Amino acid sequence: MRASQPRNVVTNPSLSPISLPTFNRHDFGPDFIWGTATAAYQIEGAVDRDGRTPCVWDTFSRQKGKIKTGETADIACEFYDRYESDLLIHKELGLTAFRFSLSWSRILPNGVGPLHGGRINEAGLAFYDRLIDHCLALGITPWITLYHWDLPQALETKGGWPNRKIVDWFADFADVCTKAFGHKVKHWIILNEPLAFSILGYFTGQHAPGRRSFRNLLPVIHHTTLAQAEGGRVVRRNVANAHVGTTFSCSPVDPFTPGDQAAAGRVDALMNRLFIEPALGLGYPTKELPFLAGIAKKVAKPGDMEQLAFDFDFIGLQHYFRAVVEQSYFMPYLWAKDVSPLRRSVPTITEMGWEVYPESMYRVIKQFGQYEGIKKMYITESGAAFYDTVQNGEVNDKARVKYHQNYLQNVLRAKQEGFPVDGYFAWTFLDNFEWAEGYRPRFGLVYVDFRTQQRIVKASGRWFQQLLTDHSFVNQ
Ligand code: FCB
């Protein structure tokens, strides 16, 4: 469902004008969190420095044809060396929360910690320690993601997510990280979008490690769900006053025609319910997706089903687009397929081929807000890739400004209706390595010239700055 389109057909950066009520930051309340989200592999570079070993993305990006542009993240944004000056820009924009992930293989070069015979790379921990201290010194609150897709290659070699031992390996990693940083960092996110790395990594093979088989799918889903809850328990145990959550990709799903209702229900179960429902103690959505019953029958060990739930303090919603689907006999297990935005002639499609549809933000908050067990929600990612150009040293990314404005407007609408949504992390701070798409899609509030590593704050960054720092600013 993470569809992308050929480059020559996508971009239409002008948004059709829609009239929206005005807002300013105070409408969101004093406790609303304003930040950006990033991921280690996409920004850090320095892939072989100070004891870091390869992760699955290092291996995958070196294989021919896996990354559309043939690029790797060896250098990326050089955030490893530039974090100090970069965070000064972050502060200048008035964004006071910074979400970043920890590179597992920087911290545990063999993937496993001392409990499993591995060793901790002190230089890896030291980097994150400096980064955290720098955030704190600038008045920026760190939000740590434990796993944003960069599995150590050493663990993939031992079987990766299909190997049940991953649950212990992950718990071990979480233990090391929380013991090292739990006294300074209170906001912890266990996984970034379990659906994406399990399906794209092990079923369709579009993402690292690039495996494609149905055989892996149920074990990967189950081990990920177990790790999600186990990670929560480790954070709770090790971090005093922890604020612990995990993130989910989510999209409202509409049927293409009235006859596609059941197909939409199945896709909704896959895209929106598969990982949250077991975490809430509701089990896997086997009614809509009967193949998931194979987990209890063939994959789970006795007692597992009681281990899937965890009482998260919050959940992170990562929302970009809605899905419109139709019945299809060619897509096994799901019997449904995406009706692309191009086919639907939607007015605004991003460089990723994703539909811009602001109301879908309101709808996902409402949908997830209906679960009883969810206490608080944050938008831990939302953003858009548009083709950016530098003119006279400036990047006037009007379409991205409109995107954030309109999506935020819909966050506010949900909030005003009483849904407990308390923050927005723009994806993303810096243009970066967009996984299998390479560096081409630019999502940043800050432009990066990848030849010179020069940074240019885009109009969208300035828009956030005005919203957050100019008290008379009212969004029009
Ligand atoms: C999300 C990922 C993030 C980035 C955005 C565009 O699914 O979590 O790393 O790739 O999409």
TrEMBL record:
One of its GO terms (biological process) is cellulose catabolic process. Substrate binds at residues 42, 148, 192, 320, 427, 434-435. It holds the Pfam family Glyco_hydro_1. The active site is at residues 193, 381. GO terms for molecular function: beta-glucosidase activity. It comes from the Bacteria. It is an enzyme of class 3 (hydrolase). Keywords: Carbohydrate metabolism, Cellulose degradation, Glycosidase, Hydrolase, Polysaccharide degradation. It catalyses: Hydrolysis of terminal, non-reducing beta-D-glucosyl residues with release of beta-D-glucose. Its EC number is 3.2.1.21. Belongs to the glycosyl hydrolase 1 family. PANTHER family: GLYCOSYL HYDROLASE (PTHR10353), LP05116P (PTHR10353:SF36). This is Beta-glucosidase.
